[in-house]
Amino acid sequence: NRRFLLAARPQGLPTAQDFRLDQAAVPVPAEGQVLLRTAYLSLDPYMRTLMEEGGTSYAPGVTLGAPMIGGTVSRVVASRHPQFQVGELVLANAGWQDYALSDGQDLTALGAMAQPSRALGGLGMPAFTAYVGLLDIGQPRPGETVVVAAATGAVGSVVGQIAKLKGARVVGIAGGADKCRYAVETLGFDVCLDRHDPQWAGQLAAACADGIDVYFENVGGEVFDAVLPLLNLGARVPVCGHIADYNRQSLPAGPNRLQLLMATVLQQRIRMQGFIILDHYADRFEAFRRDMGEWIDAGRVIVREDVIDGLENAPEAFIGLLEGRNFGKLVVRVSED
Ligand code: NDP
User: Fold this and answer.
1) pTM
2) What is the DSSP letter of 268?
3) Within the chain, what is the greatest distance between any pair of CA atoms?
4) CB atoms within 10 A of CB 139
């Protein structure tokens, strides 16, 4: 059983040395347990925050020397659990390893699914995050301007496409010309700006001549600096993530922005609301699964996966995610499904 352990707490951007590939015996299920073999491992930005001592308010940090955690699509390869049969595919939390045990409580049977990795992306957590954050908090109305960064990523690509379905004008921000072309030509965004272009902030102001009504916050940092002065009266800002800060070890250069933030929130009557998707499964997952299933089947929402082969490549792929090298929902194919 190959598994990646957290070898060191990263200083800034993680390096390969922060992970250690370990070999252990394949575990044996006890009564009431199943043995899972990982088919696909999801790599997600939140994993960076869980590499810190203490983790977050919603999940504990990974202990030094323990396996890296993560969502997976896994196959049941041995079962001593009445509800799970050998051979079936499940959504699981097996982490960065070939095999794991589960008592079944955290498993969801996937049934016969055309593309099982989608349970980690377009039909799973990231797309569900886009759905809840945009529709329940952002509440875009026809004709309004919606801005989202990491626009071709797992969450952002779905935010922009749902906003288009709701009749909004969508301006994306992404890293690189290829991603921007894809956002406009394939995903149907109205505009997409390359954050590596030195002129991009000015281009954003020009593209949002009528201001911004919904800013779906995925990244923070310089993108938020450019967005803040453009927010309209009554703008909504679902705060989903701030990946630009996840590797940060010191305050960004420049003036303190807190006063401008407070003044803008006050004067523009802005509603900023953070949310953690774990809170919304009981109420909203069923509606999401139905709507998203229909939209994908009808070709109204396109989901793109960036599939990396081999568990051994997980650390490098994860570091790439934090640097914007992924193009679509990042998953590792650990074994054939
Ligand atoms: P993505 O697939 O979008 O991949 C991350 C992307 O972030 C990169 O490809 C890169 O895109 C962009 N990025 C990286 N660094 C920076 C930077 N310094 N400035 C601007 N953009 C940067 O990941 P996800 O869709 O999975 O996650 C998107 C956000 O949503 C993250 O902040 C994540 O933490 C958050 N999230 C929150 C959840 C919640 O419950 N609140 C649940 C799931 C995700 P590019 O180079 O194209 O700009």
Assistant:
1) 0.98
2) T
3) 63
4) 14
Residue whose CA is at the smallest distance from ligand 1 atom 13: 324
Ligand 1 mean position to 191 CA, how many Å? 19
pLDDT the model gives residue 337: 62
Residue 1 CA to ligand 1 center (angstroms) comes to: 30
Task: Compute, in angstroms, the gap from residue 52 CA to the centroid of ligand 1.
Answer: 18
Close Cβ partners of 168 (under 8 Å, ≥ 6 residues apart): 140, 141, 142, 143, 144, 145, 146, 213, 214
Q: What is the pLDDT of residues 196-226, one digit of tens each?
A: 999 999 999 999 999 999 999 999 999 999 9
Ligand 1 atom nearest to CA at 240: 41
Decide: 97 in ligand 1 pocket, CB within 6 A: no
Domains of the chain, first to last: 2-120+304-333 (3.90.180.10), 125-277 (3.40.50.720)
Q: What is the DSSP letter of 312?
A: G
Q: What one-letter code names the amino acid at 262?
A: M
Give the nearest ligand 1 atom to 243 CA.
32
Give the Cα separation of 78 and 107 in Å (integer).
Answer: 14
**107 C-beta closer than 6 A to ligand 1:** no
Atom of ligand 1 nearest to the CA of 330: 2
| pLDDT at residue 336 in the model | 76
Taking the C-alpha atoms of residue 237 and residue 71, their distance in angstroms, rounded to an integer, is 27
Please list, in sequence order, all residues whose beta carbon lies within 8 angstroms of the beta carbon of residue 301, skipping any fewer than 6 positions away.
122, 158, 161, 162, 165, 292, 295
75-107 tens-digit pLDDT: 999 999 999 999 999 999 999 999 999 999 999
